[in-house]
Specification:
This protein is mainly β and about 575 residues long. Helix content is about 10%, strand content about 40%. The protein is built from five helices and 47 strands. The strands form eight sheets. Strands 14, 15, 16, 17, 18, 19, 20, 21, 23, 24, 25, 26 and 27 form a 13-stranded mixed beta sheet that branches. Strands 1, 4, 5, 6, 7, 8, 9, 10, 11, 12, 13 and 22 form a twelve-stranded antiparallel beta sheet that branches. Strands 29-30-34-38-37 form a five-stranded antiparallel beta sheet, with no helix packed on it. The protein is globular.
Length: about 575
């Protein structure tokens, strides 16, 4: 008996110790040599995804030294126009991989490795997977300079830690220290009825609560009257020291009469589940008012998020007539700074004055089934399980525009849209593409393919689509120099390329008939060639640039310079 008790005590103590030391907190060092200030936190709510790392400020400039957080080897290198831009992946002996994104340039040895492959493949964009012996690095070794490459909104370093299964982990778990003495802020809160039999203040729709701030920074809502199954959602953000950014909160929990029925914590997730963010938030409200309301409940069976720690009755609770309830919603950042919202509820079964209005159409889509739209011009195929719930789908084709419901309904995966173009001439079809309409003057090219007399494309966004024509060729202009100018003292050569129609798809630069590496900055439309790449003979040289857009309009520009 004593042996069993001792074993039980040992196992419990061991389990507690293991859970506290699950991640090494003294293995990784900071990737920058400056005090870390964040512009983005792990798990932050972004467009269609959770933020997969930390966005570290770089003093509003590029060129800060980025160092390896630990010994290891460069296992992957990406050079891309969008996404993480210039990115490095370093695998470490303990099995974790650190990721460094939006870099300006790599360290000399890595840059030389990448440039060699770029010239072999004659491509600026490239993805490489070096062998473990090729690019070894030590902790603290310079690996890159910080930048603003890819889909970055300003200079910063994107930093991630991943495990052996490519799950993304919160770097704060590894002892990364960020100064934070500020409590989260709750901007607004909403009450949600679960179904047509539920009510809140005589309404069957979501109701915004009236919040009153308390002296300690917490909030209390006005008493609501409810009956049936209900839950809540909040729009909240966190702030850190020395930063004014509205960052994401780390932990969200809800208690009803002292019992926790919901808890959401951002410690680890996979890329495959990240798009379920659109089910986690009130997506319709976000599309209409840009508020990202985090729901303390799950109302979509398709939601596969692993971030829910507690989920009793999917976060709903039943309010009975004549009974009182006390709800406490707690928001918390990683440092434990906490803000609470108290919501008093009185159970009252009343007549429902405001009911949710459902617009019925000819199309009722079932989420678990394949759904199709088809007429003489437009055909759309929606695979099963790309919607989170069943709903009436609003479709019409008028004046050349195919209205596919509206963008307030999230789509989890790709659907296929096609237009019949048999009535157009061959020359016109060659310059046509499918565009997603945002406004009367704004529309975006959607990657368009052709099969016989059909143009088709794939998308994850509902809304209006139409066929557009692009008969304009891309433009090419010299930047900072003129034809036949002497460029002896120039370190770089720059050209501006632009396309006002379907957008640039491909470009190629040559000097004296040989391919040259031209780095493209899509934010500014600038191609840059570095004269360090090759030693040119003295004299006159020919520069040739060719640019093609997405419907194959092409422009070739030739000039000469001296060096």
């Amino acid at each position: 008996m004593y042996k069993k008790a001792a074993l039980f005590l040992f196992l419990n103590c061991f389990g507690l110790l293991y859970s506290q030391n699950k991640y090494p907190t003294d293995y990784f060092i900071n990737p920058l040599k400056v005090p870390l200030v964040l512009s983005g936190t792990f798990g932050e709510l972004r467009s269609n995804h959770f933020h997969a790392g930390l966005d570290i400020k770089t003093q509003q400039r590029e060129g800060l030294e980025v160092v390896s957080s630990a010994d290891g080897y460069v296992s992957r290198i990406n050079v891309a126009h969008y996404g993480y831009g210039n990115a490095l992946y370093i695998t470490h002996p303990n099995g974790y991989t650190t990721v460094y994104g939006h870099l300006k340039k790599f360290s000399p040895k890595i840059e030389a490795f990448v440039k060699k492959q770029q010239y072999i493949k004659e491509s600026f964009t490239i993805r490489l997977y070096p062998e473990s012996s090729q690019l070894k690095v030590e902790q603290g070794e310079l690996i890159a300079l910080s930048g603003n490459s890819g889909s970055s909104g300003g200079p910063h370093l994107h930093y991630e830690i991943r495990d052996t299964r490519a799950n993304i982990l919160n770097p704060m778990l590894f002892g990364i220290q960020i100064a934070d003495h500020k409590k989260p802020t709750i901007q607004s809160a909403f009450a949600y009825p679960k179904n047509k039999n539920s009510q809140i203040n005589q309404s069957n729709q979501s109701v915004q609560l009236v919040l009153k701030p308390l002296e300690n920074g917490d909030f209390i809502a006005n008493t609501i009257y409810a009956h049936g199954d209900i839950s809540f959602g909040i729009d909240a953000y966190d702030a850190l020291d020395k930063a004014s950014n509205h960052n994401g909160i780390y932990d969200l929990a809800m208690q009803v009469n002292g019992t926790e029925i919901f808890k959401f914590t951002v410690n680890k997730f996979s890329f495959s589940e990240s798009r379920f963010l659109n089910s986690y938030i009130d997506y319709k409200k976000y599309k209409k008012s840009k508020q990202r309301v985090q729901k303390c409940f799950v109302n979509h069976k398709a939601n596969k998020l692993s971030l829910y720690q507690t989920l009793s009755n999917n976060g709903f609770f039943n309010v009975k007539d004549s009974l009182d309830y006390n709800v406490i919603i707690t928001t918390k950042d990683f440092k434990g700074n906490t803000t609470k919202l108290t919501i008093p509820i009185k159970g009252k079964k009343d007549s429902i004055v405001i009911r949710e209005k459902i617009k019925k159409t000819d199309y009722y889509f079932k989420a678990k089934e394949v759904n199709r739209i088809s007429d003489s011009i437009v055909k759309v195929n929606f695979p099963k399980n790309i919607f989170y719930e069943d709903f009436y789908f609003d479709y019409r084709y008028k004046n050349g525009v195919a209205k596919l419901h509206n963008s307030t309904v999230p789509v989890h995966n790709y659907f296929r849209l096609s237009f019949d173009v048999s009535k157009y001439s061959e020359s016109k079809i060659k310059r046509m593409y499918i565009a997603r309409i945002v406004s009367s003057k704004t529309y975006y090219y959607v990657k368009t393919r052709r099969k016989a007399n059909t143009l088709y494309a794939s998308s994850k966004t509902l809304g209006p689509y139409a066929l557009k024509s692009d008969n304009l060729k891309p433009t090419i202009k010299l930047v900072g120099f003129e034809k036949d100018q002497w460029l002896t003292d120039f370190k770089t050569l720059q050209v501006k390329i632009q396309d006002k129609g379907s957008g640039i798809k491909w470009y190629r630069g040559e000097i004296d008939g040989k391919w040259i590496l031209m780095k493209f900055n899509p934010k500014k439309g600038i191609l840059t060639y570095s004269f360090e790449d090759a030693t040119l003979k003295k004299g006159n040289h020919t520069l040739k640039i060719r640019v093609t857009d997405n419907v194959k309009n092409s422009t070739t520009f030739t000039t000469t310079f001296n060096r």
